[in-house]
Amino acid sequence: MVSYWALLAVIACERVAELAVSARHARALLGRGGAEYGFSHFPAMIALHVALIAGCVLEPLGGHRAFIPALGWPMLAVTVLANALRWWCIASLGERWTARVIVLPGAPLVRSGPYRWFSHPNYAAVVVEGFALPLTGSAWITATAFTVLNAALLTVRIRCEAGALAAAAPVRHLAMPVRGTARGRAAAQGRASAPGPGPADSGAAL
Hints:
By secondary structure, the chain is mainly alpha-helical. The chain has one domain (2-167): Four Helix Bundle (Hemerythrin (Met), subunit A). Helix content is 65%, strand content 3%. The protein is built from six helices and two strands. The chain has helices at residues 2-31, 42-62, 69-93, 121-136, 140-168, 182-193; strands spanning 35-37, 101-103. Helix 3 (69-93) runs antiparallel to helix 4 and helix 4 (121-136) packs antiparallel against helix 5. The radius of gyration is 21 Å and the shape is elongated.
């Protein structure tokens, strides 16, 4: 179990580092006119992730769980990969990554890194780590409880983020051009060539 305890220590330090990066980015975004949404569920997210780490410690100790190599080593590898994906998301979003939902009105969506392929890679990393980390130490109760609660919380979070991005999106047309006119044909060509909605994920998850 030595490897498991070392992994938990690294993850706990990583969470502290993420909060520090998030706070710095949040100050910068708000200073540039960013708007924050859904702060009411942020404390619940913090509490859930603290509970995950606590459960990963207490369940193996209280339940006298042994490290199961056939389960533990694959789950450790999955945990490392999930965290690599998380930090790839943070690097791709740069200053726009926070653990909160803060968007810059009119700013384009990030389309680099993992956001080229799917919408919420950061949340995918959270889901995967949420079951892989506790299963590394045979903490299956913690893995199950976190997965269920996190699914409910992410449902709220993703809806909040979608609403925030929609509210902050620039208005492309103030008036509908008349079809068949020169202006209407130009607008139609513009809509055809304009990029559609791209991957969206503020990375706002711990």
